[in-house]
Specification:
The chain is of the alpha+beta class. It has a domain at about 40-145. The chain is about 15% helix and about 40% strand. It contains 4 helices and 23 strands. The longest helix is centred in the first third of the chain and has 29 residues, at about 1-30. It is globular. The chain starts with a helix and ends with a strand.
Length: about 350
């Protein structure tokens, strides 16, 4: 009898041990991808890393297109020796022009839930602004019920800049919201701009924070044209307005640290062979040139950077440092008259890179 009891205890203990081992490994593997048993308000992707980046680490991304509106993104953490430390895959990120921002203690993105790729959305579709810490913990910060699918996070990771409503609605505004409390700390309706400049009726654009997080830059645009810039001072929430020079377009590059903007006097870049060819030939007949400028929004000083004979050229300006502007010019001139589309493509592919340096004392 005693022997049977001992045998029974051994069998029960073995079963419990096997179940415990099974549950342990199941728990470990379930953290590789977001756990579907958790609430969609937070998720955990288990990686061997702390919640914040160390001083010698950087983040890189690789996007994987999912459908017309969504992408999956692989996030890689590298150290100063360019050694890959971790890889995190996050699914169902909005495929906007500005889908992700990364800072020292978080990766920020807009995520879709219950999105229907056919375009007919269910009543339970949601778009949310999420943060993922570098230890893989993610949570919903703001549900974007009445906000556009765009955002900017300040460098201290204290505020989120959003747009509420849309052009034509009474509540169309730029919102600066506390990430911690979710309260609106600053609201700037479009009417604030239009009351001062009634002719500048357009949409609100978001640019970026300065590196120290003291100022946030935005603009008012109408189609491809930038009408005016505004700058908001953090904490005082004072707004300054700067008129954009004629010819400033959506592809021009703002220097938020020094207040420079690029622009040119050429025709709007079309990207279409036939239209560009027609405009280019007309300008050549008239002997016009395309002047590429820098303009300081604070001092109103204008600097001529370069001159070319193609009015439809896209200079592709980009600030690679506070004082260095990268841009491209044609490496040769096209012949007069009609040219083939392939010749036009080769012409743009053979562009020449240039760097312009500002002397700031």
């Amino acid at each position: 009898m005693k022997k049977n009891i001992i045998l029974f205890v051994i069998v029960v203990f073995s079963i419990l041990l096997a179940v415990s081992v099974y549950l342990y490994f199941k728990k470990q593997t379930s953290h590789i991808q977001p756990n579907q048993n958790q609430t969609e308000q937070n998720q955990q992707i288990k990686i061997n890393h702390g919640p914040c980046l160390s001083s010698d680490e950087i983040v890189k991304y690789k996007t994987i297109k999912k459908d017309a509106a969504q992408q999956d993104t692989e996030i890689y953490i590298y150290n100063s020796e360019n050694v890959e430390n971790n890889v995190v895959k996050i699914e169902n990120i909005y495929r906007g022009y500005h889908p992700i921002e990364s800072y020292k203690c978080g990766i920020y993105m807009i995520k879709f839930f219950n999105y229907n790729s056919s375009g007919n959305q269910k009543s339970n579709f949601r778009a949310e602004l999420w943060i993922y810490k570098y230890n893989g913990y993610g949570e919903n910060l703001i549900t974007l019920d009445d906000y556009s699918f765009d955002f900017r996070i300040d460098p201290s990771e204290t505020y989120a800049v959003l747009q509420q409503g849309y052009l034509g609605t009474d509540n169309y505004s730029l919102i600066i919201k506390s990430i911690e409390t979710k309260e609106d700390v600053f609201v700037m309706p479009l009417q604030y701009i239009t009351d001062k400049y009634s002719s500048f009726i357009g949409s609100i654009g978001m640019n970026q924070w300065t590196k120290d997080g003291k100022y946030f830059w935005g603009d008012i645009y109408d189609g491809a044209n930038i009408l005016t810039f505004f700058r908001i001072e953090r904490d005082s929430w004072k707004v300054e307005i700067f008129l954009a020079p004629a010819g400033t377009m959506g592809g021009d590059a703002l220097n938020p640290e020094l207040g420079y903007i690029t622009y040119d006097n050429g025709a709007p870049w079309t990207g279409m062979h036939d239209i560009s060819e027609e405009i280019r030939n007309e300008w050549k007949k008239e002997g016009k040139l395309n002047y590429f400028y820098l303009y300081n929004l604070f001092t109103k000083k204008q600097i001529l950077v370069d001159t070319i004979d193609d009015p439809t050229w896209n200079f592709e300006p980009d600030w690679i440092s506070d004082t260095e502007l990268e841009y491209y010019v044609p490496s040769y001139s096209l012949s007069d008259g009609e040219i083939s589309e392939s010749e036009f493509e080769n012409y743009y592919a053979a562009k020449e890179r240039k760097i312009y340096k500002i002397n700031e004392k």
